[in-house]
Amino acid sequence: MSENVGRWLRDEIENAILSSEFAPGERLDETVLASRFGVSRTPVREALMQLNAIGLIDIRPRRGAVVIDPEPHRIYEMFEVMAELEGLAGSLAARRLDEESRQAITAAHERCERSAKIGDSDAYYYDNEAFHKAIYAASRSEFLEEQCTQLHRRLRPYRRLQLRVRNRLSTSYSEHCGIVDAIFAGDGEGARRLLRSHVGIQGERFSDLVASMATR
Amino acid sequence: MSENVGRWLRDEIENAILSSEFAPGERLDETVLASRFGVSRTPVREALMQLNAIGLIDIRPRRGAVVIDPEPHRIYEMFEVMAELEGLAGSLAARRLDEESRQAITAAHERCERSAKIGDSDAYYYDNEAFHKAIYAASRSEFLEEQCTQLHRRLRPYRRLQLRVRNRLSTSYSEHCGIVDAIFAGDGEGARRLLRSHVGIQGERFSDLVASMATR
DNA sequence: GTCAATGCTCGTGTATACAAGAATGGCGCA
DNA sequence: TGCGCCATTCTTGTATACACGAGCATTGAC
User: Fold this and answer.
1) Domain residues for B23?
2) Which nucleotide is nearest to A44 (CA to C1')?
3) With contact defined as beta carbons under 8 Å apart, do B89 and B182 qualify?
């Protein structure tokens, strides 16, 4: 439990939304949430305000809060921006790589390899997240790291859906290999280009996304 | 005045911070703010929470809120990310340009020309902002537009300082010309490259920034 | 004289009460 | 029987009260 109830609640509700326990479009009643978590309405309101600022829910005056239900084209736009930021992180990482970051990336990359080899999509999901976070950290730009982490969080549910697509696991891993090589070789532009196409969703991957969103 | 007091207050306090009325490092007392704006502490707290989420202030439990005083290297990182996002916006704008966006960009560009010619740095400051926003809109990516607008807002005070630097006005305008040419020619990669170097702060422009921050 | 501990005061964190607006259901009229 | 308007109820928005924690000052002891 975090230092104050509001932040703790924000994390709780955020996780509930990201894990689809609170479905998109669902109304979030302050009183219901308050009794569910055993607190008063005040910290619930604080948590909702923060989620509103993050962009996870929509609060309309006198109308209450609802979980945002983003349209596919908006998800696409978010991936587009994510690709750009990850590309920047990769290019900075390649230029600024130090021993510590190199080890962190290597470790995460090897965990991805194991998960991909045995085809464990859940394990790969977590290892993949660690891999990308290692690259954010290696960029040595705190602000960029924060922005990437935040956007990554919001896109988390859709990333998970993507991994279900046939062959995506091994494709993803082989793309990781190229990215690691570029970063370790100090090839900033190469890392940028590879990360951009790794993260972005072009062509049939967009229809995969739409399809998986429809059947969820 | 906005629909609810909290949002109105957020804007008021945000403007006060961005215009340096509330200096970096300054303590924001809830009671003082409440009496100053003639409201109770509740909406003040809501506004502060939102500003905290945006990243303009820092709220520590039982310690209250202080205006964030970003270090120069962090400002640099923010410009670095901004450059990347604007580059993306420019490349998308070049590929997706329609008549409406073309006219908006042209209009803003011509206003910049007038302000630059007469050396009116304040007018140029506003026209420049409109110019960049026209490019965000031309990208036809709502999410990217939001992200750019938000980051632009946070960097606003420093942009203003930068314009004070000798010759920056005319240099900036001539860079705009190249950007407009690239976008109108449908040259996405050219627009991206030019915008990145236009927005980013490399070399001596970083020391200019640090110097202007110190003497403000 | 200096350092540490305790107590007081100020300010934030949470709860609750009250008011205002929006939505829904019922009743009346066409 | 259907549509529209009014009233009631529910939910949010704001205010205020109370409690807890942190910081600072003062006093006592070494």
Assistant:
1) 5-67
2) C14
3) no
Number of structural domains chain B divides into? 2
What is the full DSSP assignment across B132-153? HHHHHHHTT-HHHHHHHHHHHH
Q: Is the pLDDT of residue A206 over 70?
A: yes
Confidence of residue A1 (pLDDT cuts 50, 70, 90): very low
CA distance A141 to A92: 8
Does A142 contact B77 at a Cβ distance shorter than 8 Å?
A: yes
Nucleotide in closest CA–C1' contact with A61: D12
Whichever domain contains A21, its CATH number is: 1.10.10.10
Are residue A39 and residue A129 in the same domain, yes or no?
no
Who touches strand C, with Cβ under 7 Å? A 4-6, 39-43, 46, 62-63; B 27-31, 41-42, 45, 59-65
Identify the band that residue B1 occupies on the pLDDT scale cut at 50, 70 and 90: very low
Residues B156 and B57 placed together within one structural domain of the fold: no
Q: How confident is the model at residue B2 (pLDDT cuts 50, 70, 90)?
A: low
Give B36-50 pLDDT, tens digit per residue. Answer: 999 999 999 989 988
Domain match, A207 and A164 both: yes
Let me know whether A130 and A151 are in one domain: yes
In this structure, is the dihedral angle defined by the CA atoms of residues B142, B147, B148 and B153, taken in order, positive or negative? positive
Residue whose token pair is 């206003």 = B111
